[in-house]
């Protein structure tokens, strides 16, 4: 990357960074790093690209938001000495953006088939969230038994005026769905970790013992289980983002 490339990463950025008082937040694969500590490999990072990126962000007083999770957000997927990792993905913003939110954080999410870790940037107006509200999760509707759970609760008779009956049914449904979610879906983040670990173990067996039809079938099944777990986790974060005000890259 040369200086002109950085200026043209996005044609709209030129206008954004002109006004210091304007809130600016950019999350992207910048295809460069800010220092050698963000590089791991047998080669050497390009010094000119690093200096240009530093100069560009410093000129506009951009802040590199700290990212929790994976140290490097990209790898070339190669093995041995050819393996390279870099932190190419990040969130940068100015002080006006940070001052607009009482909570501002960024973390990596699990990666599956991509060579990049996705980023989750979460921000809130205040930290006083009070009691957590109940919300129907989209992933529940994908389970074949969800409709039966709802019907069974809704068909129970209650005494009172229509509004009282409705309120009692909603309360009962809320409690039943919470219990059902725990029993059926469990902790979706733990499920992702377990699925990743299972796939990793199978792939290690393939590397050590060679490919067999049985191991290949196990790998395919484990990959499907991981995809399913990641789908549920993605839907979970999408639901949360609507409530918190989040963006993901």
UniProtKB/TrEMBL annotation:
Domain of life: Eukaryota
Entry GO MF terms: endonuclease activity; exonuclease activity
Keywords, in A-Z order: Endonuclease, Exonuclease, Hydrolase, Nuclease
SUPFAM superfamilies hit by this protein: DNase I-like
Protein known as: Endonuclease/exonuclease/phosphatase family protein
Provenance organism: Trifolium medium
